[in-house]
Amino acid sequence: MNNSRLLFGLASSPNEPLLLDMAGVLSQIERRHNVELRDSTSSAEHHVRATLRRGRQDQPPNTPETIDFWADAESGVGLRAEMTWADGRQMQFELLESVQLPDGWYYYSEHAPDREFRRLPE
Questions:
Q1: Is residue 20 pLDDT above 90, yes or no?
Q2: pTM
Q3: What is the CATH number of domain 3-97?
Q4: Which helix (DSSP H) or strand (DSSP E) does residue 93 occupy?
Q5: pLDDT at res. 100
Q6: What gap in Å lies between CA 16 and CA 39, rounded to an integer?
């Protein structure tokens, strides 16, 4: 299977997006889209838009028409990505802050200290 078709197929499916080869996805976007820096509504973010190049015969059928990226202006960390297809479908990915979990969080007894539980045989 063609790598670009696989990458965009995964990006447009409900499969786990964190399994994507992000360097590969960005490389595909760079080859198939015109990329431009856009005016951002916030000085804390940079906004980049990738617009699909017209007339290419090798476009995979499920390639987004536009892809918008927002990144933190200071760190460069990607905050959000929005993809729009020709038929109007849209998908958005957003980086959310997560808190550090306590060490005991992964143990059942941490969540139900007053309840009896039985371990399943391994």
A1: no
A2: 0.61
A3: 3.10.450
A4: strand 90-94
A5: 85
A6: 31
